[in-house]
Amino acid sequence: MEVFKCRICGDPYVGGSKPSHCPFCGAPSNYIILAHDWQEPEAFELTEVSKADLEHALMLENNNALFYTCAYEVSMNVELSAMFKALAKVEAEHASVIRKLLGLPKPIEEEDNRGRCQALDQGNIKEAHDREKRAIDFYSRAAEVAIEPRIKEVFTALVEIEKTHIELNNKYLGTFSGMQNPII
Ligand SMILES: [Fe+2]
Ligand SMILES: [Fe+2]
């Protein structure tokens, strides 16, 4: 067994080999290193642009985590519910990574996720796709303009991660396309 650490979220993973993606933030394996080789990222000053982009990113990730939590709670399908729950955890982890970069404390109260999603699965799969697309577009631009290497790295990883969410959503969009949904 080895101990690994993710360079994006910093969380440790114990296993026989590197996972293909970080189980916490979803970063691909190239961001996962042996804990033995870990070096703390150096302290740096945030530019005003990055601070504003991180603040927007925090709102986006919090909203998406609430959306996915709501979606898994309303889903009657075991597989879809599992996917939404997994994505809720990943997006909450992204919010946590961003909060740390901004130097903000953990929120004390959990926000209410009721009414944050649609009533039926098919609508939520489509909405998930749109949310991930918006996140990818935003992070791509934010990665491009960030001049701090650490911020560029995090935004770049987030683009890669949210792309895997689109792939996952597309898979279910096809599988469940026959589902009735009066909302769309
Ligand atoms: Fe991670
Ligand atoms: Fe995210």
UniProtKB/TrEMBL annotation:
GO molecular function: metal ion binding; oxidoreductase activity
Superkingdom as given in the UniProt entry: Bacteria
InterPro entries on file: Ferritin-like, Ferritin-like_SF, Rr_diiron-bd_dom
Originating organism: Candidatus Aquicultor secundus
SUPFAM superfamilies the record matches: Ferritin-like, Rubredoxin-like
Residue ranges of every copy of the Rubrerythrin diiron-binding domain listed in the record: 54-168
Sequence intervals crossing the membrane: none
Pfam family, one: Rubrerythrin
Protein's name in the database: Ferritin
